[in-house]
Design brief:
This protein has about 180 residues and is an all-alpha fold. The protein has nine helices and no strands.
Protein backbone atom coordinates (compact mmCIF):
# COMPACT_ATOMS: atom_id res chain seq x y z
CA UNK A 1 0.00 0.00 0.00
CA UNK A 2 1.30 3.42 -0.94
CA UNK A 3 1.50 6.10 1.74
CA UNK A 4 -1.10 8.30 0.02
CA UNK A 5 -3.63 5.46 0.12
CA UNK A 6 -2.71 4.75 3.75
CA UNK A 7 -3.30 8.40 4.72
CA UNK A 8 -6.66 8.30 2.93
CA UNK A 9 -7.61 5.10 4.76
CA UNK A 10 -6.51 6.59 8.09
CA UNK A 11 -8.59 9.73 7.54
CA UNK A 12 -11.59 7.61 6.50
CA UNK A 13 -11.50 5.69 9.79
CA UNK A 14 -10.08 8.21 12.29
CA UNK A 15 -11.64 11.63 12.81
CA UNK A 16 -9.84 12.72 15.99
CA UNK A 17 -6.93 14.96 14.96
CA UNK A 18 -4.89 14.06 18.06
CA UNK A 19 -5.13 10.38 17.13
CA UNK A 20 -4.07 11.20 13.57
CA UNK A 21 -1.12 13.19 14.96
CA UNK A 22 -0.20 10.18 17.13
CA UNK A 23 -0.28 7.92 14.07
CA UNK A 24 1.89 10.34 12.08
CA UNK A 25 4.34 10.53 14.99
CA UNK A 26 4.39 6.74 15.23
CA UNK A 27 5.08 6.51 11.51
CA UNK A 28 8.01 8.94 11.79
CA UNK A 29 9.46 7.04 14.74
CA UNK A 30 9.10 3.69 13.00
CA UNK A 31 10.71 4.96 9.80
CA UNK A 32 13.74 6.23 11.70
CA UNK A 33 13.97 3.05 13.79
CA UNK A 34 13.88 0.95 10.61
CA UNK A 35 16.60 3.07 9.04
CA UNK A 36 18.80 2.70 12.12
CA UNK A 37 18.23 -1.07 12.34
CA UNK A 38 18.64 -1.73 8.61
CA UNK A 39 14.99 -2.75 8.17
CA UNK A 40 12.37 -1.88 5.54
CA UNK A 41 11.58 1.80 6.16
CA UNK A 42 8.35 1.75 4.13
CA UNK A 43 7.01 -1.38 5.84
CA UNK A 44 7.82 -0.16 9.34
CA UNK A 45 6.47 3.32 8.57
CA UNK A 46 3.19 1.90 7.28
CA UNK A 47 2.77 -0.13 10.47
CA UNK A 48 3.30 2.99 12.57
CA UNK A 49 0.90 5.03 10.47
CA UNK A 50 -1.95 2.51 10.51
CA UNK A 51 -1.57 0.79 13.89
CA UNK A 52 -4.54 2.65 15.46
CA UNK A 53 -6.82 2.59 12.41
CA UNK A 54 -9.63 0.94 14.40
CA UNK A 55 -9.40 2.92 17.63
CA UNK A 56 -12.67 4.76 16.97
CA UNK A 57 -14.42 1.69 15.55
CA UNK A 58 -13.55 -0.36 18.65
CA UNK A 59 -14.04 2.65 20.93
CA UNK A 60 -10.70 1.87 22.53
CA UNK A 61 -11.80 -1.60 23.67
CA UNK A 62 -8.41 -3.22 24.21
CA UNK A 63 -9.87 -6.72 23.75
CA UNK A 64 -10.70 -5.86 20.13
CA UNK A 65 -8.36 -2.96 19.26
CA UNK A 66 -5.95 -3.89 16.43
CA UNK A 67 -7.96 -6.95 15.36
CA UNK A 68 -10.35 -4.85 13.29
CA UNK A 69 -7.40 -2.94 11.83
CA UNK A 70 -5.88 -6.22 10.70
CA UNK A 71 -9.18 -7.24 9.07
CA UNK A 72 -9.48 -3.91 7.25
CA UNK A 73 -5.89 -3.94 6.05
CA UNK A 74 -6.03 -7.58 4.98
CA UNK A 75 -8.81 -6.59 2.54
CA UNK A 76 -6.38 -4.06 1.08
CA UNK A 77 -3.66 -6.67 0.58
CA UNK A 78 -1.32 -5.36 3.27
CA UNK A 79 1.70 -7.55 4.01
CA UNK A 80 1.20 -10.15 6.76
CA UNK A 81 4.27 -8.93 8.68
CA UNK A 82 2.65 -5.51 9.00
CA UNK A 83 -0.65 -7.07 10.08
CA UNK A 84 1.15 -9.15 12.72
CA UNK A 85 3.07 -6.16 14.09
CA UNK A 86 -0.12 -4.11 14.26
CA UNK A 87 -2.05 -6.88 16.02
CA UNK A 88 0.80 -7.45 18.45
CA UNK A 89 1.23 -3.80 19.41
CA UNK A 90 -1.82 -4.58 21.57
CA UNK A 91 -1.13 -7.84 23.37
CA UNK A 92 -4.41 -7.48 25.27
CA UNK A 93 -6.40 -8.17 22.09
CA UNK A 94 -8.01 -11.56 21.79
CA UNK A 95 -5.39 -13.10 19.52
CA UNK A 96 -3.42 -14.94 22.22
CA UNK A 97 -0.02 -14.10 20.70
CA UNK A 98 3.04 -12.35 22.12
CA UNK A 99 5.55 -10.01 20.51
CA UNK A 100 8.64 -11.89 19.38
CA UNK A 101 10.42 -9.97 16.60
CA UNK A 102 12.31 -6.68 16.49
CA UNK A 103 9.47 -5.29 14.33
CA UNK A 104 6.84 -6.20 16.95
CA UNK A 105 8.84 -4.73 19.83
CA UNK A 106 9.76 -1.61 17.87
CA UNK A 107 6.13 -0.84 17.00
CA UNK A 108 4.94 -1.36 20.57
CA UNK A 109 7.76 0.73 22.04
CA UNK A 110 7.71 3.30 19.24
CA UNK A 111 4.02 4.09 19.34
CA UNK A 112 4.11 4.19 23.14
CA UNK A 113 7.02 6.61 23.44
CA UNK A 114 5.20 9.13 21.27
CA UNK A 115 2.82 9.68 24.19
CA UNK A 116 5.66 10.35 26.62
CA UNK A 117 7.38 12.70 24.18
CA UNK A 118 4.11 14.55 23.51
CA UNK A 119 3.35 14.89 27.23
CA UNK A 120 6.88 16.19 27.86
CA UNK A 121 6.60 18.76 25.05
CA UNK A 122 3.28 19.98 26.40
CA UNK A 123 4.80 20.97 29.76
CA UNK A 124 7.34 23.23 28.04
CA UNK A 125 6.38 26.91 27.77
CA UNK A 126 6.30 26.82 23.96
CA UNK A 127 4.70 23.34 23.84
CA UNK A 128 7.05 22.39 21.00
CA UNK A 129 8.85 19.08 20.59
CA UNK A 130 11.80 21.06 19.18
CA UNK A 131 12.52 22.31 22.72
CA UNK A 132 12.63 18.84 24.28
CA UNK A 133 15.99 17.19 25.03
CA UNK A 134 16.53 13.43 25.20
CA UNK A 135 17.51 13.70 28.88
CA UNK A 136 14.08 15.20 29.64
CA UNK A 137 12.42 12.09 28.21
CA UNK A 138 14.64 9.65 30.12
CA UNK A 139 14.04 11.67 33.28
CA UNK A 140 10.27 11.53 32.74
CA UNK A 141 10.54 7.75 32.27
CA UNK A 142 11.38 7.53 35.98
CA UNK A 143 8.45 9.72 37.07
CA UNK A 144 5.56 7.25 37.26
CA UNK A 145 3.01 9.97 38.00
CA UNK A 146 3.94 11.90 34.85
CA UNK A 147 1.91 10.69 31.86
CA UNK A 148 0.86 7.81 34.08
CA UNK A 149 -1.01 6.00 31.29
CA UNK A 150 2.22 5.60 29.27
CA UNK A 151 3.54 2.08 29.87
CA UNK A 152 7.25 2.37 30.64
CA UNK A 153 7.76 -1.39 30.35
CA UNK A 154 6.49 -1.28 26.78
CA UNK A 155 8.92 1.55 25.99
CA UNK A 156 11.75 -0.53 27.42
CA UNK A 157 10.98 -3.20 24.83
CA UNK A 158 13.21 -1.10 22.59
CA UNK A 159 16.01 -3.23 24.05
CA UNK A 160 14.37 -6.34 22.55
CA UNK A 161 14.52 -4.55 19.19
CA UNK A 162 18.27 -4.04 19.66
CA UNK A 163 18.47 -0.47 20.98
CA UNK A 164 19.46 0.97 24.32
CA UNK A 165 16.88 3.20 25.97
CA UNK A 166 19.06 6.28 25.43
CA UNK A 167 19.50 5.58 21.72
CA UNK A 168 15.82 4.76 21.32
CA UNK A 169 14.79 8.02 23.01
CA UNK A 170 17.20 10.03 20.84
CA UNK A 171 15.95 8.43 17.60
CA UNK A 172 12.27 8.75 18.56
CA UNK A 173 12.57 12.36 19.67
CA UNK A 174 14.54 13.23 16.53
CA UNK A 175 11.85 11.65 14.36
CA UNK A 176 9.10 13.63 16.05
CA UNK A 177 11.08 16.87 15.80
CA UNK A 178 11.20 16.43 12.01
CA UNK A 179 7.40 16.54 11.83
CA UNK A 180 6.66 18.76 14.84
CA UNK A 181 4.68 21.40 12.95
CA UNK A 182 2.69 18.72 11.10
CA UNK A 183 1.56 17.16 14.41
CA UNK A 184 0.96 20.45 16.19
CA UNK A 185 4.05 20.23 18.37
Amino acid sequence: MQREKAIELLRDHVKNERTIAHCLASEAVMRDLAARLGEDVEKWGLAGLLHDLDVEITEGDMHHHALETARILEKHGVDQEILDAIMLHNEAAGHGKRRHTAFHHALAAGETITGLITATALVYPDKKVASVKPKSITKRMKEKAFAASVNRDTIRECEKAGLSLDEFVTISLGAMKKIGPEIGL
